[in-house]
Write a structure and sequence with these properties.
Distance between the termini: 60 Å
Number of helices: 14
Shape: globular
Radius of gyration: 24 Å
Strand order of the largest sheet: 1-2
C-alpha cells in the first residue's frame, strides 16, 4: 500500500521534487480542500520534464491556476451543453408530434419508428414507459400525472423533459429518414445563423455529433478531466466550421475544441457568442497566471489552436 502522507509531508515532497511553494499554509489548505490526488497527480504533468521532476521555476500557484481553469471550462461547457440538450429535445418532440400527435402514446408503439433494430428499439421504448410509470407513482403532482389524468395521454413534449439526453438521442436513431431529415434541417438553421452560410447536415452526421455531445456532457457532469478528452466519433469535416479555425481535413475531430465549434449546431447566435467569449476570457486569464510554460501547451491538450485566445472577441448580436 502507498503510505498516507500528512499535508506537511505532501508539501515537503513537492518542494523536494523542485516545485516552488510561495505560501505553505495556503498550499496545505488547498490540498485539504481538493486532495493531493485530484490536484497534483492530474495537473502536475504540464510542469514536469520527467516523472516527479518539475521544470525550474514551476510553482504550486501555476498548478492551482490550471486546476481552477479546468473547473471553469467544464462549468462553461456544461451550461451550454444543457442549452443544446434543451433545443434538441424541443425540436425532436415537435417534429415527432407533427407526424404522430393524433395517436396517444405514439412513442410507445414500434410502428412509429424504423424497426430495423428491434432489440435496441424495444429497450428504448421500455425506458420511455418506465419514466412514465415512475412519474405516475409519485405522490406529488407533476405534468405527466396531469396529462395522463386529464387527457389520457402524455404528449412527447411533456415526457421529453423527464428524459435524459441519451434517451432522446437514441429515440432519434430509431426514427425514419423523413423525420430525421426534418430534424437535421432544423439543426442546420442554427448553423446558418452562427456562420452566415448555408450548411447541409445529413442525419447520420448529426447522429455522430449528438453522441459526441453525450460523451463530453458525461465527462463534465462527472467532473472528469477534460484535458486529452476524446469522444467516440470523428465528425464530418465542415469547411465553414473547421477550415476557418485552421483545422486540416486530415486532423482528428474528436477533442473538446471540435465539440465546442460544433455546438453552433444547437445554440442561438447570442448564446454561442457568450460561450465563445467566456472560453476566450478563461484562457487569457490562465495565460496571465502561468509563466514557465506557454498557455498553448495546456489549451492544446483540449484541441484549441495556437494563440486561439488572441483572436478578436466575437461581437454580441444586436
Amino acid at each position: 500500500m502507498k503510505p498516507f502522507k500528512t499535508l506537511d509531508e505532501q508539501v515537503d515532497l513537492l518542494e523536494k521534487r523542485g516545485l516552488t511553494i510561495s505560501n505553505r499554509q495556503k498550499t496545505k489548505h488547498y490540498l485539504l480542500q481538493h486532495s493531493y490526488y485530484n490536484v497534483i497527480n492530474v495537473y502536475s504533468r504540464f510542469f514536469q520534464y520527467e516523472t516527479d521532476k518539475y521544470i525550474d521555476g514551476a510553482t504550486f500557484d501555476e498548478i492551482r491556476a490550471v486546476h481552477v481553469f479546468d473547473s471553469e471550462i467544464k462549468s462553461a461547457f456544461f451550461k451550454y451543453l444543457l442549452e443544446c440538450e434543451k433545443h434538441f429535445k424541443s425540436i425532436l418532440a415537435y417534429r415527432f408530434s407533427e407526424i404522430y400527435g393524433d395517436t396517444s402514446f405514439a412513442y410507445l408503439k414500434t410502428s412509429s419508428f424504423d424497426d430495423k433494430d428491434l432489440i435496441q428499439l424495444s429497450s428504448t421504448i421500455s425506458q420511455l414507459s418506465t419514466t412514465i410509470t415512475k412519474n405516475l407513482r409519485k405522490k406529488e403532482s407533476n405534468a405527466i400525472k396531469h396529462y395522463n389524468s386529464n387527457h389520457h395521454d402524455v404528449p412527447l413534449w411533456v415526457l421529453v423533459n423527464q428524459l435524459t439526453f441519451g434517451q432522446v438521442v437514441y429515440m432519434y436513431t430509431h426514427f425514419n429518414n423523413k423525420l430525421k431529415n426534418a430534424i437535421a434541417h432544423d439543426v442546420a438553421h442554427y448553423l446558418e445563423n452562427n456562420t452566415g452560410e448555408k450548411i447541409i447536415i445529413e442525419p447520420n452526421e448529426l447522429q455522430r455529433f449528438l453522441f459526441n455531445l453525450i460523451d463530453i456532457r458525461n465527462c463534465v457532469a462527472h467532473n472528469n478531466m477534460l484535458f486529452n478528452f476524446k469522444s467516440k466519433n470523428n465528425v464530418k469535416y465542415i469547411p465553414q466550421l473547421h477550415k476557418v479555425e485552421g483545422i486540416e481535413k486530415t486532423a482528428p475531430r474528436q477533442n473538446p475544441f471540435n465539440c465546442f465549434i460544433m455546438m453552433q449546431a444547437l445554440l442561438e447566435k447570442d448564446q454561442y457568442t457568450l460561450f465563445h467569449n467566456t472560453i476566450r476570457k478563461r484562457i487569457r486569464n490562465l495565460d496571465h497566471r502561468i509563466k514557465v510554460i506557454p498557455v498553448d501547451k495546456i489549451i492544446g491538450s483540449l484541441g484549441f489552436p495556437t494563440n486561439w485566445h488572441k483572436k478578436p472577441v466575437k461581437e454580441q448580436p444586436k
